[in-house]
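Obj.: predict assembly geometry.
Materials: sequence records (below).
Method: joint structure prediction, all chains together.
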Amino acid sequence: MTDTRSETTSIADRIRPLSVGAAVIAVHFLNDDPVFVLGEEALVFGRDTEERRVVVHGGAILGSASDGKRILTGGDDGKVAATGPDGRSETVASDAKRRWIDRVALSPDGMAWSSGKQVYVRTPKSERVLDLPSSPGGLAFAPKGFRLAIAHYNGATLWFPNAPDARPEKLEWKGSHLDVAFSPDGRFLVTAMQEPTLHGWRLVDGKHMRMSGYATKVRSMTWGPGAKWLATSGATQLVVWPFQGKDGPMGKSPKVVSPSEHRISAVAAHPKQEVCAIGYEDGMMLLTRVEDGAEILARAPGPSPISALAWNAAGTRLVFGTEDGEAGVITL
Amino acid sequence: MTDKIPVTVLTGYLGAGKTTLLNRILSEPHGQKYAVIVNEFGEIGIDNELVVGADEEVFEMNNGCICCTVRGDLIRIIDGLMRRKGKFDAIIVETTGLADPAPVAQTFFVDENVGKRAKLDAVVTVADAKWLKDRLRDAPEAKNQIAFADVILINKTDLVSEADLREVEARIRGINPYAKVHRTERCAIPLSEVLGRNAFDLDRILDIEPAFLEHEDGHDDHGHHHDHAHGHDHHHDHDHGGLKHYHDEDMQSFSLKTDKPLDPDKFFPWIQNLVAQEGQKILRCKGILSFKDDPERFVFQGVHMILDGDHQRPWKDGEERASRAVFIGREMPEEMIRKGFSECVA
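Observations (raw structure tokens):
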């Protein structure tokens, strides 16, 4: 195995590099334009002709989420900011004690953020708060219905914010849960843990799924088209868990493709095809067909780990950012 | 790696003076910028955008071992702080008066992301000159904080007599003879004595042999009385030319030394097995090692069952190539550890 992948077909020459100037923690698309979320202060809009920097926080940006129409960010300045495609940003909430806003989530029906051990959900009509036993590690809205999943110590909580009398449902599993994602078909909930493992629940009956074998904690997860699989970072190869059957990955082994000497740091499934974009800690990027592991080199190794990857909705453009602030767009 | 951010952990029982020390650190003109992780927002009277509130959220790692508890909030906060790398020179973590320092220290070894970016510089414990003796009797947390410390400030010295101070010092030495101890009033101390200590570089344990340890072998029994006045906490009190000397019945410490180079293939399995078996009893261990045919010093440290170690630097010309380790804990099988260590020579 060689990480130069000299024999592999390459599209690395199609990268249009962008200058964003600081560590990239996430990439989203607004109106089909890539927007880079930096670790500090700003978003960078990467239109075709120029980069435009929009300051949204007075400090570190701790979390971001997007619904394609706006980007919600939380900062160590205690503020939640919403930024639209035109680059106009507004502060939508400020923590009274100026506590950090750790996590954010966005749905067409409302927005959520966490600070300390509280989760706030705001809809056009109301704002509600839920107290938790420990600080949330991750927030995610369900694909359908206005329901929020919150990862925390010893499991996850499912909350219908619009049904204030309904008790939040608890899914228990010992340990610290740091990230959470619904499967796009809404059948499964998966958390990434402090230990190098994922935990999952089948929501209809709460049945557990343990997905382990990683080298390090999983910080990037992506669902393949039709929610058929979940691909993850955290190992030196792409680990792809099958979610097609009614039992999900229970009792099944993951498929592993695209091995490297370096760990995978970011993943993004193509929205339509069975292809996953993979970013490695050595800065390399591959496009890998999940079915047979066929690879295209998207970026040769560079100085720093790939920290963010995203496709546009049509799957015609891939954008990436690195920990050192390199960034680029590849048009397919 | 040299660009890791040093982290100072500040402990001390309620009311000992941690906040006073923090305010001093934040207000004195030292040209350094600190990010401070506090447990109680608002106690610090200084406006600093890099003061972060923590929740002291401890959890057990999935193996279920109570020794492997970690501060999850610290992992999250340090991850967030690192987005502002370059804006500060060091991190200070204040713990609550009742906190066990172990989960804080373990966090820096257990979490890969934290360990890659930050390193534990020193555990600094502020002790109340007047009340420490009582707390050592009734608060196990207070004793842990002393046992864990690399640097100890005996604070509020103006409130007690010289004789009382010597008594407190002796009690501290009985628990932790390897920490550097300072006497302070209102935590007045040059900050270089507290911050940037690199105490985990461990040179102290090679250079400074606590004076009274030298009495260890030759002491006779006169002037040695058992003091049962403190209930279960039973002290031996020795008097050597005015230097009071306690053995804490609950907490012990000892050091190991050999001039013969060690065999890494013997040492690592031995120490890993030791902490796996006896880690509950070992609060802290640390050492500098000379391995056979290895031009570099190896340093290690451990908290309960978690070990961390690395090559530190080449041995200098003329430097004594000895291996030395210290252990602080409760009911440790000292003879077994001594024997095991001696069998690691190459």
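Conclusions so far: Chain B touches chain A at residues 41, 49, 52-53, 55, 57, 59-62, 64, 70, 72-73, 75-77, 80-81, 83-84, 111-113 (CB under 8 Å).
To do: check interface contacts against the pulldown list.
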